[in-house]
């Protein structure tokens, strides 16, 4: 994720996503990710959700079966 945000010249950390600041909670495939969100690997069909502040939004599952990707 960090490289993707770097390309767009946007910050990504445990306290900031782009211009939004606050506690960042990350979910990967519905599971809470406790490390640095910039270290999340971006792979095909990965469901990544970044929440800023509290309360967080329950992770949503994406149905990729109809995407033809």
**Rg calculated over all Cα atoms:** 12 Å
Low-confidence sequence ranges: none
Number of domains: 1
**Residue-averaged pLDDT:** 91
Q: H/E element string?
A: HEEEEE
Total count of helical runs of at least 4 residues: 1
Short description:
With 69 residues, the chain is mainly beta.
Please give a structural write-up.
The protein has 69 residues and is mainly beta. The protein has one domain. The strands form two sheets. A three-stranded antiparallel β-sheet has the order 4-3-5, with no helix packed on it. It has one helix and five strands; from the N terminus they run αβββββ.
Descriptors for this entry?
mainly beta; 3-stranded antiparallel β-sheet; 9% helix; single chain; 69 residues; globular; 5 strands; 1 helix
Write the layout of secondary structure elements.
Layout: H1 2-7, E1 16-17, E2 20-21, E3 24-28, E4 31-33, E5 48-52
């Amino acid at each position: 994720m960090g490289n993707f945000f770097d390309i767009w010249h946007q910050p990504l950390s445990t306290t900031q996503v782009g211009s939004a600041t606050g506690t960042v909670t990350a979910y990967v495939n519905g599971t809470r990710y406790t490390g640095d969100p910039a270290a999340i690997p971006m792979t095909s069909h990965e469901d990544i959700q970044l929440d800023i502040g509290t309360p967080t939004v329950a992770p949503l599952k994406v149905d990729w079966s109809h995407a033809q990707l």
